[in-house]
Design a protein that fits this description.
By secondary structure, the chain is mostly helical. The chain contains nine helices and no strands. The chain is globular, with a radius of gyration of 22 Å.
Length: about 250
């Protein structure tokens, strides 16, 4: 299925509308090329505005917005530390930022004339690569190059410790699994959000008769968006747990 066919099955957004108005112009091509980046930037601006409004008058007795952000931050910290232990708190800002950013991007598609940037593999792959690079950096920092390679060779090695075949084979398998992780992580998120957006577009195509189904599926899409953000961050946290020496995760 071509990109044009895929676009025809998506709900219209203001980028596609503008591109249609300025059809075949360089401006329309520019908008189409940077479509997902534009929507990602809009989500970032929205998050910055919410953070500003929540913290501009921070007080001991918090208001509703400040209280909501504090509860969310506390919940994410408990989530991360529940897997990584108390020393995993230093990874809470990264995991928390991913979680909030992905949720907002997932749910952007239910807003009229907006689109979920996570319905594009370019967006989810970029997020997954950030996780991959940070995890590898953490593993090397915590264990050192030698310790990291030794860990990749697998332990304990039993009576085959003096043979080169099993450790080298395990090293190859671990390297392959590490390289596959960002692909599987990104495709899982992209495919689910893309499928949700396609479902909403199909329901909207039924017109007035499809309103009850559209409303029901919108609720499903909201739930799925939250679940997919949670799964992405859960797997990311587990990757950190595997990269940190066991004595550190306690």
């Amino acid at each position: 299925m071509s990109q044009t066919q895929l676009t025809q099955h998506e709900l219209p957004n203001f980028i596609t509308i503008l591109a249609g108005i300025f059809k075949d112009s360089p401006f329309a091509q520019y908008l189409s090329y940077w479509e997902n980046t534009i929507f990602s930037f809009i989500v970032i601006c929205a998050l910055l505005l919410i953070a500003y409004l929540a913290l501009r008058r921070a007080s001991v007795i918090p208001g509703r917005l400040q209280n909501a952000t504090e509860v969310l931050a506390g919940g994410i910290d408990d989530f991360v530390c529940g897997i990584l232990g108390p020393k995993g708190r230093k990874y809470t800002p990264f995991i928390g930022t991913l979680f909030i950013y992905i949720i907002f991007m997932n749910l952007a598609g239910i807003i009229p004339f907006m689109k979920s940037p996570t319905a594009s593999w370019s967006t989810t792959l970029a997020l997954a690569l950030c996780v991959f690079i940070y995890v590898q950096y953490t593993a090397i920092k915590e264990q050192g190059i030698r310790g990291y390679i030794d860990h990749m060779m697998g332990r304990p090695r039993g009576f085959l410790i003096f043979t080169a075949v099993i450790p080298i084979l395990l090293l190859f398998v671990h390297i392959l699994s590490e390289l596959v992780r960002p692909i599987s992580l990104s495709l899982r998120l992209r495919s689910n959000i893309w499928g949700d957006d396609m479902l909403l577009a199909i329901m909207a195509g039924f017109g007035i008769k499809g309103v009850p189904l559209l409303f029901f599926n919108t609720l499903i899409v909201i739930l799925a968006g939250i679940v997919q953000a949670t799964v992405f961050c859960l797997l990311s946290t587990i990757y950190f747990a595997l990269a940190i020496p066991h004595e550190e995760v306690s």
